[in-house]
Amino acid sequence: MSEILDKKDDLAAFRAAIRKWLEKNCPSAEEVEENEAAAGADYKKYEAFQRAWMAKLNEVGLAIPHWPVEYGGSGLSLKHLIVISDEMAKAGAPQLNMYTISLNHIPATFLAWGTEEQKRRYLPGVARGTPWCQGFSEPGAGSDLAALRCKAERVGNEYIVNGQKIWSSYSMHAEYCILLVRTDPNVRKHAGITYLILNMKAPGVEVRPIKQSTGRAEFSELFLTNVRIPVEDRLGEENKGWAVALTTLASERGILAFEDAERFRYKMEKFYQQALAEDAPWLRDDQRRREFMKMLSRVQAVRGIIRELLEHNQVDPGAPTIAPSVIKIAETSLEQAFYEWLVRLKGGKSLYSEPVEAARGEVPGDPMWSYVDSYGRTIAGGTNEIQCNIISERGLGMPRG
What is the pTM of this model? Predict the structure, then answer.
C-alpha cells in the first residue's frame, strides 16, 4: 500500500498526502499544455504522455481508486474520490482523457453485466494502461442511439460484424472497444441490440480520425468489415444489449462532472483574482461585471447539483433521476457562455489571431479556440436538446412530441 492509501482512514491526512505527492509529481504547466496541444496532432507523443501519467498514478493507488480491490483498484469510497478529484483539479493535474471510457464506463458496465471470467480478463489491464473506446453512435443514430444499424450475424461461436460508428473519442489509441450492434432487425428498435467487446486489432477494423473545427482530431470514425468477434466477448444476452448500454451511459455523469466543475471553478476564480490584481478595465464596466458574477454563481449552483447526484447515487444507485441531464446542460452551457463573454471582452482581435490553448488552470488569453470547442461539449455525450427532452418527459411528465 502506498503512503497515500495508508492515510485513507483519516480524510484530512489523505488529502494532505495527495497534495504533497502532486507537488512533487505533477507535470509542469508547460508539459500539460504541450500534451493537450498534441491531442489529434502528434498521436504518439500524446499517448506516451497519457500512459506515463496513468502509470505514475498507478504506483500510488490513484489510477483506479474507485474500483474493487479484487480487480486491481483501491476500493476507496465516494468521499475519497471527491478529495482526489478536488486536489487534481486544484493542482491542474493532467486529465486522463484517453482513459475516460476505461476508467468510468468499463467498470460500471463490467461489474454489472460481465461474467467473472470477463472481469478477471479485462478489468486489471486498465490500471496497467489499456485504453478503451466506445462504438455507439452512428451516422443517423447519435441522438436516437437505438436506431443503430451496424449489423452482427452470428455464425457458430462468432459474430460477423459490418457497419460504421462515428464520434468515437480517442479511438485511435484504443486497444478495445465496447460496441453496440443490431442482431435482430425484425423487432422494435430497442430490442434486437447486442453489446460486444471488440479487439481494435482484429482484421477488418479501420479507424479514421475526424478533424474538428479547432484543428484537433480527438474523435474517429470506425469502419467494420467482416470483423469476427467471439460470442464469449458478449456482455449480457443476445438482443438485450440496450439494458447494458443504459448502464454504460449512466456512468457518464457523476465524479467526471464533479472534477470538470471543480476545474472550471478554479479557472474562473483564478481569472477573477488576476483581474483584481491588475485592476482590469472590465471590473469598472457594470454590465460586464454583472455578467461575470452571474456566471460565477452558476458555477456554484452546478457544483451543488453534482453533489446531490453523487449522494443520490450512494443512497440509491439504481433509482432514476434527471439530475445527469440537468448537470450536462448546466455545465456545457455555462462554459459556452463564459468563453463567449471572453470573446466579447477581447473584441475583434479574437477573430484574427491564431488559436492558443491556455496553460494549466488558466483562462486563455485568446479565447476563440475555447469558444469554438465549447460547441462540441454541448453535443458530446447526448446533445443538450436531447437532454431537454429527457427532462421534460421523465422529469416533468410532459407528453412525447
Answer: 0.84
